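RECORD CONTENTS
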Amino acid sequence: MTIRVAAVQFEAGQDIGANLATCLRLVTDAARQGAQLVVLPEFCNHLAWYTDRAQAHALATRPGDDFLTAISASAAEHRVYLKINVTHAYPDGRTGGTNFLFGPDGALLGSCDKQVLMGAENDHLDPATEVGPVLDTPIGRLGMYACMEGVIPETTRGLTLRGAQVLLNSLNSFATDEAALHIPVRAAENRAWVIAANKVGPLLPAEHLPAMSRGLGVPEQWLHGAGESQIVAPDGTVLAKGPRTGEAVVIADIAPERADDKHRPDGSDILAARRPELYGPLGDVPTGRRRPPSAPSLPVAVVRPRDPGQAADLLGTSVTEGALLAVLAEDALGAHVGPAEVAATLAPALRGTDGYAVATARSADGPVGLLIGPDGVVGEQPQLHRAGAARDAARPGGALRTFDLPWGRLAIVVGDDAIFPETFRLAALADADVVAVPFTPREPWELALGLPERAAENRLNVIAAGPLGTGAAVFALSADFTLWTTWAGPFTGRISSPLRTDIAADRSVTHAVVAPAQAANRLVSRRTDLVDGRPWRLVQALPKGADPWPTP
């Protein structure tokens, strides 16, 4: 089944009637172009700016009010499924950032509140108290979320585990890395469709823009909605995208059932291969960081020998040239070499230095990552998931370990563990500063979207080493991260994307510098912590697992 969908972007101000008129006009436009499902941006009813919590509640929508009644009537008039996000007042006094889905007869099919609030939203709104529904409709199984919920992985992962084929995202964001990274990665990592509608125009009242611009040190144009609403396929391909500025109705045809195939090229199923029994910490009460600061900078190297005999020499050269951590590509010494042989080969290259190396070996239970120092093996990290080379492992690893080194805390993500967002979340919750990833990329999205997102959503420095001829990159954390601190460089709209060093496919040794100390700063905005702000109360599907949705 193929359906036509639309992501609509526009500007919303403080005039609720004018905002409603814009919504209705653009829904009509989308319907005229054949859309059967229409997604509108976040906070369609009123600019997300309030003097206090009471004003936010007073200006919010209410059941049966003129605003929602008109939206319902529009869905019925045009025979479309219509997803909208508004501030919504509940009888008990709560105010939600609420998603509504109306059906083609105008009936309300489902609603949910935003689980993760951003910055000043914490002052005016109440987070969700329960997860949003997955709505089984004639055009597919639909899940709803909004903006900041797409900057971290839990909400969309939970919707996917509960059967959603199409993820509907409403945004109110000035961040350009939404379109470049956070939106498409949620499609690729979950093998689901994403329809994302963002705002354009000022996100603050016009009279306050000059003062806010001066106070934040951010040019006024960067305080506008970033647009680039888009429709993304389950492999991360962007099928259609709106402009950076100006109204737009973004249209594409999609086949929702494509999202039912969760298999990778090697045949492993990305959901069936999860290890829910390992993910308990994702639902733990946040505790914050409890360690002294790590080193401000760390010289690193990615080492990818052309043949196993070069590995020790290339490692020795990299540490001689200043690298304190060298990450060797997966199977750099061969696909069947055991831990003892790998250690015996590499440790001599580190003697007399302060360097450490991460390499992989094959044990009886599958791939294992080795942390090697001048005196030999410091620790081991078995692959955790039955995927890739560990697809048939009898006993995959039982926990993600971390290692305290002179410059900070290291985690090792082995092989196909790299495709699971849960793996890196565990590393962040264990206060890792740097993650070494010896792996073999199998699909383009893994390096283009997956690993930079793991750095961004967790504030982790990531060193990814694929074998020579494949992909490799270093993702370092920038000190320019949140609007609530002074930026060293010019503001470009990119809030959380890491500094990326791509490595040419034929390059054997590449040096870079990462910033362990920056992993301590997780505040993407005031009162919004990327890790401790995760919806830990509402992650039931992640650590408990989920039954596969029945398919024909």
